[in-house]
Amino acid sequence: MSPARERAVVALNKIFKRGKKPREVIEALSWDNDKRERAFLMELVYGVLRYRDLLDWMLKDFLRKPAGLSFDTINNLRIAVYQLAYMRVPEWAAVNEAVDVEKAQRGRSSLVNAVLRNFLRRRDTIPPPDGDIALATSHPGWLIKRWVKRFGPDGALRLAKKNNELPKLTIRIDDAVARESAVSVLAARGVQAHKTLYSPSGLVLEDLHSFSDLHAFLGFPCMVQDEAAQLMTFLLAPCPDEIVLDACAAPGGKATHIAKLMGDRGKVIAVEAESQRIRQLEENITRLGLHSVAVVHGDILDAEAGIIRAAGCGAASGSCMFDRILLDAPCSALGVIRRNPDVKYRRLPQDLQRFRENQQALLQAVSRYLKVGGSMVYSVCSTEPEEGEEVIGKFLHSNQNFSIIKGEDDFLRPFEYGDPGRVFYRTFPHEHDMDGFFAARLKRIG
Fold first, then answer.
1. Are 397 and 445 in contact, with CB atoms under 8 Å apart?
2. Maximum distance among all Cα pairs of the chain, rounded to whole angstroms
3. DSSP assignment, residue 299?
4. Where exactly are the structural domains of the chain?
């Protein structure tokens, strides 16, 4: 029996019952460092996360009392049906392995065997859930209703289906010459890559999913970062010798990008509240050989002393004025479902109000650090207006000394919308083949 199948059951239990994040769980369970088994484990776990509701619907006619089954058995069946429906796994192997897993867990192996064999006999008679976008794509009904209202049925379906596709690995290479050579270096290793369509620093890899392999191939620094996230830093447009604040910095993609765009000249103050993410932030800064980034461990709402100290502001000033500020605020993450499919099952409509209130508080807090004439970018990886346009609207209503300004680069124009005096930026997975982001660029005018 492959250990990946049994570990996948354990992983799904932790994700659904205890709210653990998939990558953390998989990392903890991949103790034997077998790359093929780890890849198989990831495929099983993420496959079930993408299609959980549809898998349950496919199973419903073969289970008399599903509510009476343990989480172990339910997740074991989900894994088996996912393999039968979406993977090139021999039918006998999927069934036999599921039965062996159930035996190892002292579960209901005879029931699992009967259900799966019955499923194989009758699966061609299972009607597709036509017209039910939420069920067909395993998205919550409340979210699909919102998307249908905003994008129409076709747009909502395309977005939901795109969320269920495995995104390609996108990296950022800040040196233009290295980016050019990376394509040929990777091709020599049998890895196809091409430049991102919009970001001048991005590279999309077609068939490589391991960052450790990638780093060994290239031999020079790079950062795994989606194209949409790269665009947020270009929207900020930092310049050499400026003092820049990254208010929610981990894991460091945007903070390191800011420093690179500044030529590592000036100061980037990277603030992060979560202690477990500080190490990753510091590792990325070190790995990219940057010297202009200073890390402050604390909540941006009450980290003024640490920020002033790290920025080197005079104690007598009592505050620090930054040339530019990036606030990539904590959010619902509904724009990155394709990377984190468990988000679909974690979020409820009322969560949007909770996130909005926190985002408004964060934006208000960081705005006081911006000097007159300075610019600030607010961004979230969310598709929803509550976390984007509504946050900015309320902030501007309460802060008449700020105005919206456009980005400086022409490659940002495809993402602009609104009227000339109120320009916002949005990216969508189904429109741009990148993560879903909202952003606005603000200037302090007084």
1. no
2. 79
3. -
4. 3-125, 133-163, 169-224, 227-444
pTM of the model: 0.93
202 CB contacts (<8 Å, ≥6 apart)?
170, 171, 172, 173, 195, 196, 225, 227, 230
Question: Would you call 381 a catalytic residue per the annotation?
Answer: yes
Task: Give per-residue pLDDT as tens, 249-266.
Answer: 999 999 999 999 999 999
Q: H-type helices in 30-70, by residue range?
A: 35-59
Strands 293-297 and 266-272: parallel
Torsion region of 248: left, alpha or beta (phi above 0 gives left; psi -120 to 50 gives alpha): beta
Span 417-439, pLDDT tens digits: 998 889 999 999 999 999 999 99
The class that CATH gives domain 227-444 is: alpha beta
CA distance 195 to 218: 15
Burial (CB count <10 Å: 0-12, 13-18, 19+), residue 374: buried
Write down the catalytic residue from 222, 320, 331, 381.
381
Q: Give the closest residue to 91 by CA, choosing from 126, 116, 115.
A: 116
Residues forming beta bridges with residue 423, ordered by sequence position: 418
CATH of domain 3-125: 1.10.940.10
Tell me: cis bond preceding 129? Omega within 30 of 0 counts.
Answer: no
The dihedral formed by the CA atoms of 52, 153, 419 and 427, expressed in degrees to the nearest 10: 30
**Sequence-ordered strand ranges (E) for 225-342:** 242-246, 266-272, 293-297, 322-328
Q: Domain 169-224 is of which CATH architecture?
A: 2-Layer Sandwich (3.30)
- Residue 439 Cα to chain centre, angstroms: 15
Alpha-carbon distance 382 to 226, whole Å? 14
